[in-house]
Amino acid sequence: MYDIIPLIIILISLAVIIVIVVRKFSVLATLDVANIPAEKEAKFKERIIGTRLKRNVIKWWSKAFRLIGPVLATVVKFFSWLQAKLLQLRSDYQDRPIKADEIKPKIDQLFNEAEDCKKQEDLTAAEKKYIEIIGVDSRNIQAFKELGLLYFEQKNYEEAKQTFEHILKLKQDDEDAYSNLALVARERGDLREAKEDYLKSLNVNKQNAQTYFNLALVYQAMNNNKKAVSSLKEALKIEPNNPRYLDTMLEISIIIKDKALAWDAYKKLAEVNPDNKKLDAFKRKINKF
Q1: Which of 28, 107, 130, 170 shows the greatest Cβ crowding within 10 Å of its Cβ?
Q2: Is residue 210 classed exposed, middle or buried when 0-12, 13-18 and 19+ CB atoms within 10 A define those classes?
Q3: pLDDT given for residue 208 in this prediction
Q4: What's residue 87's pLDDT?
Q5: CA 20 – CA 60 distance, rounded (Å)
C-alpha cells in the first residue's frame, strides 16, 4: 500500500499542472498575429504557443515541485524506511499468517519482550520487537510511541520526529505525540517549534501539569519569564504541592524580583519539602530585594 502513496502524490501534482496549463492556453490563443503574412501565420502562431506552453509548463512544474518536493521527500523517506525495517525482519521471524485470536496475545508478548530487551540495554532488539508489532498491527499507536522514544533515547532525532508525526496521521489529537515532538525540538534547539508543539498538546488536554511545566521551561529558555510564570501557575493549579514546580517558580520569581510571588512559593516549598537544601539560599536572595 505504501508503494503507491508517492505515485498518488505525483499524479495529483500533474493534474494541478494540467489545469494551470489549460487556463494559460486561453490567454495564449488570443495572441495578435494580424500583421504576419497569411502563409506564415499558422506556423508562427503554433510556434509561439508551443514555446509559451513549454515555458509555462516548466515554470509551474518548478514552482509546484518546490512546494511539494520537501513534503513528498519526507513521506517517501519515512515509508521507505519503515518498509525496509519490516522487510529486514522477514528473515528473522517465522513467516506465517497470524489468526485473529492470536493477534492480541502476540502483540502483548512482543511488548513484554521489548521491555526485557530495554532492561538489558539491547535497544536494537527492542526496536525489532516494536517494528514486528507494527507488522502485525500497522495502526498500533503505542508501538509507534515506544519506537519514537527509543529513537529519541538513541539521539536519532530525525527518525524519532518522523515516527511521532506518523502517529498524528493515525490520530490527529494525540497529546503525547505533540509533547514528544516538542521534546525532539528542544533537543535540537528549536525552542519556537517546541513551544508550538506543547501548546498543541495542551489544546488536546488542558489538565496535564507536566506539559505546562515543560512549556514553562521553554519560555524560560526563551527569556520570556512572564509567560513561564503563567505556565507554572497553571501547572500548580493541577499539582499544587509538586516540589519541582515550586522550586522553579521560586527561582524565576527571584530572577524577576517579584517578592510577593517569591515568598508565596518559598512558604509552599518549605511546607512540602522542608529538607530542600536550597531553602536558606532562596530566603537570603528574597531578603535582598
Answers
A1: 130
A2: middle
A3: 97
A4: 56
A5: 8
CA distance to 118, 140, 157, per residue, from 104 (Å): 21, 11, 30
* Contact present, 166 and 144 (Cβ < 8 Å): yes
Residue 246 CA neighbour count, 13 Å, CB half: 21
* CA gap 113, 130 in Å, rounded: 9
List of the chain residues with pLDDT < 50: 1-2, 21-22, 24-41, 44-45, 48-49, 90-94
- SS3 for the chain is CCCHHHHHHHHHHHHHHHHHHHHHHHHHCCCCCCCCCHHHHHHHHHHHHHHHHHHHHHHHHHHHHHHHHHHHHHHHHHHHHHHHHHHHHHCCCCCCCCCHHHHHHHHHHHHHHHHHHHHCCCHHHHHHHHHHHHHHCCCCHHHHHHHHHHHHHCCCHHHHHHHHHHHHHHCCCCHHHHHHHHHHHHHCCCHHHHHHHHHHHHHHCCCCHHHHHHHHHHHHHCCCHHHHHHHHHHHHHHCCCCHHHHHHHHHHHHHCCCHHHHHHHHHHHHHHCCCCCCHHHHHHHHHCC
All three cell numbers of 111, joined, read: 511488548
Closest alpha carbon to 180 in 195, 197, 192: 197
Q: What is the pLDDT of residue 31?
A: 42
How far apart are alpha carbons 253 and 261 in whole angstroms?
6
